[in-house]
Amino acid sequence: MRSLNALARTLCLAALAAPIGAAFAQSTPASSPRTVAVRADNDAFDFWMPPWNRPDEEYTSGVRVTYDGGDSPLWSRRWIGRGLAACTIGATVCRTGRSELGQDIYTPSVSVDDPHATAGSRPNAGWLFVSQTARILRDDRSDDFTVTLGVTGPPSLGRQMQHLAHSVAPEFNRPTDWSRQIAFEPGIIVRYEQQRRVTLVDDETIGMDLIPRAAIDLGNIASNAELGVETRIGWHLAHPWLPDAARPEIALSGGAWGRGVARDIFVDGNTFRDAPSVGHRPFVAGGDVGLDLRYGPVSLGYHVTSESRAYDQAPMWHPWASMIGAVTFDR
After folding, report:
1. What CATH number is attached to the domain comprising 19?
2. Exposure on the CB side of residue 83, measured as CA atoms within 13 A
C-alpha cells in the first residue's frame, strides 16, 4: 500500500472527525492546551527502500485523528482522578482526556502478479474504531484508562479504502483480494497503561529522560500484556505528557517493547463464528526510533517501527513508518 492510500484515508477520517469530536468534547478550561493530531502509519513510508520494493503487507496501514486535552471524559470523573483539576500549563498533578477516531488495515503478502496469498498467510482485516481515554498525569507518572469500540469486517471499510487508493496509482501498488477476510464483529478493548519518567539530563537547552511503561488490554479484539521502555534526548525537550509552554523543540527517541499475546482477532479469527485464521504467536517484540520537531503551535514527527512476526508464516520482521502532524491551541 502506498502513500496515496494513507492520504486518502486521512482525508476521509479527518472529514468524519469534526462531528465525532464534537460529540466527544468535554468542558475545556480556557488555559488548558488542546491538541488535534493526525497520524498515518504505512509501510509505504519506508523511505530508505526504493518505492517498488517497499512492503505492502501485515500491519500495512493505520490512520488516527486525535483530540487531546481539556478535562477527563464524563464517564470517568467519579472513579478516575476524582478531586483533581483539569490539566493546565504548570500543573504537576491533574486529569485530562483524549478522544480518537481510527482505522487499521492488515493484509497478507502477495506477489506483484497474483492477488491471492499463499497458504498459511493471514486473512485481510479492517478495524474501524473510536476510543476515549481518561488520564491522570503527574510529573513522574501517567495513568491512562482507555475504552475502544469498533467493528471489523466489511463495515470497517478496509477493502474500499485500499481499493480506492490502489486504483489511483496502480503501478506502485500490488493487487489485492478481499474474498478472505475477518468477518463483521463489534469489538471492545479496555486498556490500562502506566508510564514512569526518570529524568537523566535537565537544563535550559538539553534534556534527556527514560520512560518505562506497562500496559494490559482486555477484549474480544485483543487481549495482551506489554512491557516497554523509551529514551528521549532533545533541545528544549518537552515534558512527555504534562502541558507546558511552547518552545521550539528538536527531539530524538528510541524504544523497545515485548508483548505477551492471549488473543489477536486479526490472526485468530472471529470470536463467535467461523472465519479465516492462522493463530497467534505468544510473544511479539518490537522497537522504534523517531524524530520530532515543534515550532509554535505546530508539531511534526517521523517514526520508524519494526515488529516481529505475529504468526508462524509471517515475515520475521515487518517495518513501517509513521508521519505525525499536530496543532496545539491555547498554549
Report:
1. 2.40.128.140
2. 0
Q: Which residues contact 12 (CB under 8 A, 6 or more apart)?
A: 161
- C-alpha distances (whole Å) from 65 to each of 14, 43, 234, 301, 324 are 7, 19, 26, 15, 10
CA distance 312 to 257: 20
Q: What is the Cα–Cα distance from 233 to 207, expressed in whole angstroms?
A: 6
pLDDT tens sequence across 21-76: 434 444 444 468 999 999 999 988 999 998 878 888 899 899 999 999 999 999 99
Q: Which of 157, 131, 141 is nearest to 68 (CA)?
A: 131
26's grid cell: 468535554
Percent composition of the chain: helix, strand, coil (DSSP 3-state, to 5): 15, 50, 35
Give the range of the structural domain holding residue 141, as residue numbers without chain letter: 3-329
How far apart CA 297 and CA 80 sit, in angstroms, is 29
> Which set of grid coordinates corresponds to residue 256?
523497545
Name the residue type at position 103: Q
Q: Which three cell numbers stand for residue 250?
A: 528538536
Average pLDDT over residues 6-33: 47
DSSP for 155-212, written as a single string: GG-HHHHHHHHHHH-GGGS-----SSB---EEEEEEEEEEEE-EEEEESSSEEEEEEE
The set of cell numbers assigned to 216 is 494490559
Percent of the chain with pLDDT over 70: 85
DSSP, residue by residue, 264-302:
EHHHH--SSS--------SEEEEEEEEEEEEETTEEEEE
Whether the CB-CB separation of 74 and 25 falls below 8 Å is answered with no
Report DSSP state, residue 11: H
Reported as a single tens digit per residue, the pLDDT across 199-247 is: 999 988 999 999 999 999 999 999 999 999 999 999 999 999 999 888 9
Number of domains in the chain: 1
What are the residues whose beta carbons fall under 8 Å from the beta carbon of 177, sequence distance 6 or more?
Answer: 110, 115, 116, 117, 124
